[in-house]
């Protein structure tokens, strides 16, 4: 009998479509870490945490950009402070992604994923003045705090206490970066004085 659409390579009565579905289901079940959280909540928490993770990727790259392209009389101070900031932000990446996997959801797979899901806009310029770099990072860190606070509410509503607790520490660290950047931004000038 001539195969019909969707069954071009039927073997043992099983169409390719059925085999593909079974394969997808096997792949999905391999990643379905068990959790007692409500499946609908898992989806919401994962979306919120993936947003924070995406922010971390974009912020990390921007801080490194400014760390590398800083200039002026405060170069050493700014350059070193930004390295500390980059290290702290980098430290959030694996923790956030693994929280998503611990509750059985999928996390980011690529840098384009991060750019798409982040509320931050990447900075491709390398010639910003020191005060512009500091002020841009202050605004980004403020946005990150606000994003984490929203994500914390989602985690709270889902009774995902571990994700909420993780975010609490990250909010504190981000507020510390805001504090430093704010103090510097008050007197920072284009020449770096
Ligand atoms: Fe460095």
Brief digest:
The chain has 193 residues and is mainly α. The chain is built from six helices and no strands.
Fold topology:
Blueprint: H1 16-31, H2 39-69, H3 75-102, H4 111-117, H5 130-157, H6 161-187
Bound molecules: fe (ii) ion.
How would you describe this protein?
- The protein is mostly helical and 193 residues long.
- The chain folds into two domains: 1-31; 37-187, Up-down Bundle (Ferritin), CATH 1.20.1260.10.
- The protein has helices spanning 16-31, 39-69, 75-102, 111-117, 130-157, 161-187.
- The N and C termini lie far apart (83 Å).
- Residues 67, 83 line the site of fe (ii) ion.
Look at the structure and give the CATH class of the largest domain.
Mainly Alpha
> At the fourth CATH level, what is the homologous superfamily of the largest domain?
Ferritin, core subunit, four-helix bundle
Bound molecules: fe (ii) ion
In total, the number of strands is 0
Tell me about the largest β-sheet: none
Residue runs with pLDDT of under 50 for 5 or more positions = none
Please tell me the overall pLDDT: 92
Report Rg: 22 Å
When the domains are counted, the total is: 2
Tally of DSSP helical segments: 6
Instruction: Estimate the helix proportion, in percent.
Output: over 70%
Please name the defining characteristics of this protein.
Ferritin, 193 residues, binds fe (ii) ion, mainly alpha, single chain, elongated
């Amino acid at each position: 009998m001539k195969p019909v659409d969707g069954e071009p390579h039927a073997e043992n009565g099983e169409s390719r479509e059925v085999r593909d579905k079974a394969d997808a289901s096997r792949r999905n079940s391999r990643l379905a870490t068990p959790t007692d959280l409500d499946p609908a909540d898992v989806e919401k928490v994962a979306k919120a945490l993936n947003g924070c993770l995406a922010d971390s990727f974009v912020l990390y790259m921007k801080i490194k950009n400014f760390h590398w392209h800083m200039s002026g009389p405060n170069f050493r101070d700014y350059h070193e402070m930004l390295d500390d900031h980059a290290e702290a932000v980098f430290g959030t990446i694996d923790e956030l992604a693994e929280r998503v996997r611990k509750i059985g959801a999928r996390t980011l797979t690529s840098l384009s994923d991060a750019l798409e899901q982040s509320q931050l806009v990447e900075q491709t310029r390398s010639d910003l003045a020191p005060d512009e770099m500091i002020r841009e990072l202050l605004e980004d860190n403020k946005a990150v705090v606000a994003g984490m606070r929203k994500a914390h509410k989602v985690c709270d509503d889902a009774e995902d206490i571990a994700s909420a607790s993780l975010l609490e520490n990250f909010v504190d660290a981000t507020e510390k970066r805001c504090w430093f950047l704010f103090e510097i931004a008050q007197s920072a000038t284009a020449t770096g004085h």
